[in-house]
Amino acid sequence: MASKRKRKLEKKSSREFQEKMQARRDSASDALWTYGLPLVVILVVGLGVYFAFFYELGDPKAEEWELEDPQTGEMFSSDDYYNDGLTFVEFFNTKCGHCQEQEPILNDIYEKYMNEESPDYVSSFHMFSIGGYKLGSGQDSATNIANFKTEYGSQWPHLFDSSGELMRDYGFSSYPSMVLVKNGEIVYSHSGKMTEAQLSAQIDKYI
């Protein structure tokens, strides 16, 4: 008799527990529709406003710099060039074999686009090579860069990054690496040596 009463009590207790759990589920469902849906709507609208008015589409913004050409002592600032036509920037190391092979090619690019007597001359095209970075256990100095520029007879500025961080800020870790900047944004980037024809083809796209 006691066993039968116990089973009834257990059955009643189980039914009451299930009813409570169902009530909680119903309450949670009501809360989701009451509060969750408006929150989703607010989130979607908020994201729409952000992408419509605040998110900047397009190419990544080029990091600014102000650096010295150790051969001439002249200071150059990206502010004077990045929003004036097209700017070519190379990151290099004087001991890098590919950089040494790239230098005569860049001399050709300079003669093509920056020599006023060239039929391809572009007044709003600018060139910079920037060094001061490590290769193996060695790191380029201002003197290394000045001597490198003299050795190859290069006429465009070869700048010294005393912080040694600008190349990394542009997302590069190998030599040579280069970017084309227009309207303050990076429109093209590349790591590795390029031929004169390859580089000219990219420059012509953005001039």
Structure description:
This protein has 207 residues and is α/β, with parallel strands linked by helices. The protein is 46% helix and 19% strand. The protein has a five-stranded mixed sheet. The protein has a two-stranded antiparallel ribbon with strand order 1-2. The longest helix has 52 residues, at 2-53. The termini are far apart.
What's the gist of this structure?
The chain is α/β, with parallel strands linked by helices and 207 residues long. It has 5 helices and 9 strands, in the order H-E-E-E-H-E-E-E-H-E-H-E-E-H.
Topology:
Elements: H1 2-53, E1 66-68, E2 75-77, E3 86-91, H2 97-113, E4 125-131, E5 134-135, E6 138-139, H3 142-152, E7 158-160, H4 166-169, E8 177-182, E9 185-191, H5 196-206
Parallel strand pairs: 3-4, 4-7
Antiparallel strand pairs: 1-2, 3-8, 5-6, 8-9
What integer value in Å does the Rg equal? Answer: 32 Å
Task: Give the CATH level 1 class of the largest domain.
Answer: Alpha Beta
What is the approximate shape?
A: elongated
| Secondary-structure-derived class | alpha/beta
Total individual domains: 2
Instruction: Give the helix tally.
Output: 5
Fourth-level CATH superfamily of the largest domain: Glutaredoxin
- Strand elements, count: 9
Reading side by side through the largest sheet, how are the strands ordered?
7-4-3-8-9
Roughly how many Å apart are the termini? 98 Å
Secondary-structure element order, as H and E?
HEEEHEEEHEHEEH
Quaternary status: single chain
Helix content: 40-55%
